[in-house]
Amino acid sequence: MKDSIDFGTMNVAKLFRKLLIPTVLGMVFSAIFIITDGIFVGRGIGSDAIAAVNITAPIFMINTGVALMFGIGASVVASIHLSHGKLKVARINITQSIIVSSFILILYGLLIYLNGETVVRWLGSSEKLLPMAVEYVHWFVPFLVFSALLSSGLFFVRLDGSPNYAMACNIIAAVGNIFFDWLFIYDLQWGMFGAALATSLGYIGGALLILAYLFCPKHRLHLIRFKTTWKSMKLTMRNVGYMCRLGLSTFLCQAAVATMMFAGNSVFMKYLGEDGVAAYSIACYFFPIVFMVYNAIAQSAQPILSYNFGIGCRERVRIAFRLSLFTAMSCGVLVFVLTFFFSSNIVSLFVGMDSPAYFMAVKGLPLFASGFVFFGVNMVSIGYYQSVKRDTPAMVITVLRGFVLILFCFWLMPELIGENGMWLAVPMAELLTSFVVIFIYCRDRLKNQRKIFYF
């Protein structure tokens, strides 16, 4: 499934499309992976169950954040080494990334598993939701490392010139999850245990396909023997530290989603109770579609940006960024329009009209979707700065949109305009962040520094 791709000479628009289409399709199937859980849990178990799963979502988002931090960090470094003809060094980079991230996330999963009830309470669960949330954690957390392998490994497969194989990994994981959800929840009536196990098995299938690719020595990028000498370990720690610095903004983006879910769950629980959390959960299940499409756009541009940054082709960098920005904004407008007109259809996938959460979600979902255009601008801008090794602007944008402004808006907006304010908190945070992005752009243009790649 090797594809004919040359990051340095192929027409940028053609190259971007060649990477974007399979990457978006793969990400859409990843989103389907998550949404399917919500549909089966909401319809097969109940609205309280969907609220319980959303309470535990920050655990998963942090896990994915670590995986993406290592994935994009190693991918940027490996892309630049490939542009300089250093193939062996690129192989070392991806090997170090996978081994170290897997070790960290195994420890993370063990810590969560041993303290499941405490963690779920800390995440804001009510006593009513607690048993279901704890059950879900106990059967999902032990397999988190497989979801991380899938998330990070996709970067390396695409960088090796095989975006179609990466897409296939996502599709197989999603289809497996859908099948097991139906089997475990509807047919066998296994409840929350079945929902967690179905998700885990889907990730395991996708991760095994990634490992099969990366263990094959015929591929240009593949895993090599990991040395454990003192000198090699010091070099690994140095390389991993650099990768993490480059990928930290991506981790913070995931942590920001976790913060959005945590803060939103707390606010909706405070004002509207479990039904409010269930309604907000539907938005959080819908959100991954947009988030993953924007991720796909940023990830498709990343190897083009990094490779051409490495060889000094400024014009190709500018063209790739403009293409990714225009694509993200167009997607944001399209998704908002679809949400505005089909809000009730989307909500009905998760809960019926007999649930109070239904009417809350139908009213709130279009308000929540009003920030998707600004979200796209922010996500693609973060990916751009990461790809050209400007981690400081990427960090500033990420911290503002994901932590400072989101918490401020969730505190302020309900006080100002009530229930609508809860739904508009995220869009307002994204809008304010877009103003910061524009400010950084204008500042860079005024400075006119040779080392800065402009929009």
Task: Please tag this protein with its features.
455 residues; mainly alpha; 0% strand
Topology:
Elements: H1 12-44, H2 47-83, H3 87-114, H4 116-122, H5 130-140, H6 144-159, H7 163-187, H8 191-214, H9 230-311, H10 314-348, H11 356-369, H12 372-387, H13 391-417, H14 419-447
Q: How would you describe what is shown here?
A:
This protein is an all-alpha fold. It is built from 14 helices and no strands. It has helices at 12-44, 47-83, 87-114, 116-122, 130-140, 144-159, 163-187, 191-214, 230-311, 314-348, 356-369, 372-387, 391-417, 419-447. It is globular. The two termini are 34 Å apart. The mean pLDDT is 84.
Gist?
The chain is mostly helical.
The total count of helices amounts to 14
- Cα(first) to Cα(last) distance is 34 Å
Assembly context of the chains: single chain
Characterize the main sheet: none
β-strand number:
0
Radius of gyration: 21 Å
